[in-house]
Design brief:
It contains 8 helices and 13 strands. The strands form 2 sheets. Strands 1, 4, 5, 8, 9, 10, 12 and 13 form an 8-stranded mixed sheet that branches. Strands 3-2-11-6-7 form a 5-stranded mixed sheet. The longest helix has 8 residues. It has a single domain, classed as Oxidoreductase, molybdopterin-binding domain (Sulfite Oxidase, Chain A, domain 2), CATH 3.90.420.10. The relative contact order is 0.17.
Amino acid sequence: MDSQEVTPKDVYLNRRQFVTGATATALGILATGGLSEQQGEAGEKLSAEKRTDYAPGEKQTTYKDASSYNNFYEFSTGKEDVVALAKNFKTRPWTITVEGLVKRPRTFDIDSLIRRSPLEERIYRFRCVEAWAMVLPWVGFPLVDFIKTCEPLSKAAFVEFVTLHDTIQMPGQLRDVIPWPYVEGLRMDEAMHPLTLLAIGMYGKILPNQNGAPIRLVVPWKYGFKSIKSVVKIRFTDHMPTTAWVMANPGEYGFYANVNPEVDHPRWSQATERRLGEFLRRKTLPFNGYAKEVASLYQGMDLRKNF
């Protein structure tokens, strides 16, 4: 990736050693060119601007709960065995290929991308599909910033995301639970909304393997399956992508996946939810509590049909 592809900023990843000297100190440049090869070992911290614009003002889910109870079908359909199965998942080297309706296709090295992107820490509600939810402090950068770097053409109306397909590292992909590789998509205005985040960490630390390392999407007003993990490809297109869950079960999982408590999933109610780590249930909020920010995106749409 050439140096003009992402504008350098002052906020970077902390490393164990920093470059000495006045110039390096002023710029905050890292001593090494990237992150550790295995970044699932919790420890390595991230430096980010703390943003409270959209913080829900609610108790955060503990790191222990959020990092040990995971939906990551590439490893397992079980929630509590993903940690062990993802322990040795290699996240370096890692690149993200950009293709489709863009000025020029290119490939981004993730370390170069992260070093040159201003990181933010944002606290979001995160609604999972089986009526449970979390409140997490994610660390990442707005997807809109990355989209601008990709220079999509005016015809691009949707953004498609693809997860790594590697049956050796991801044993869950040996099962026909859904079509592989995992594919998700957003409408362009959804992708460019300031709430939408490309996350590379949580709780001020590098993203654990089981939570979607090294980079994942976070779309807080939608169900969690829209927030695709371990992304390796981003494609700009003029038509709605056929996503993995739509291919697997279109009657249960629609393209939009907006949180709508008035529409039940065929196998469970979505009117209430349980926060991870809590016993009592809560009332589910429209758009997961972000209606003020995003409801206008769907003005005139029937959200019972476009689920």
